[in-house]
Fold this protein.
Amino acid sequence: MTTSDEAKKAPAKDPWDLPDVSDLVVGVLGGTGDQGRGLAYRLAKAGQRVIIGSGAAERARAAAEELGLGIEGLDNAECARRSDIVIVAVPWDGHAKTLEALRAELAGKLVVDCVNPLGFDKQGAYALKPAEGSAAEQAAALLPESRVTAAFHHLSAVLLSDPEIAEIDTDVMVLGEKRADTDLVQALAARIPGMRGVFAGRLRNAHQVESLVANLISTNRRYKAHAGLRVTDV
């Protein structure tokens, strides 16, 4: 039997057979902002080792001390160096500048971009489209030696940070170029009770996922809610 014949007969991998990520260190760039703090808190509460990064180390340390749970606070560069997986949760207007400055520290790392390029006017939130197509694609262009994925866009910072809420009932859309990388991010999302990571395509599809946040903001304002997403039939 040839190798190609063996490949044809091999059973397809179960898409829910995800790797163990419990020993990986997760860094959160922008960990002093609402979204970053919320993600850091939930992952640390789930038992993950977490480092908060900030442009100013003292702000990162203050946020880490406030959150507790063994979270460390470091400047962005040291956070990137000491982490296995790095979540980018910085404001959109500082996205490119932050990543350009950390290109060397992020080389070889699994980077998870959760930044949503949005504008706001009297009519509410609306999606912006970067020249590269999306924030995630901008990250991939700026970090050619990193493994860039996109995830964690549609999470409520209020729910993430509320210690009274035991589970976050939502799915996380995960995008990336390599299945091994998206599997890791899906597994990381699943560490948070109630949450599930769902593969949603390659990075070229990230704009739709990022821009959907504008719709969720409108939903939340109308219904005074903290809406998330659930994908059915998977």
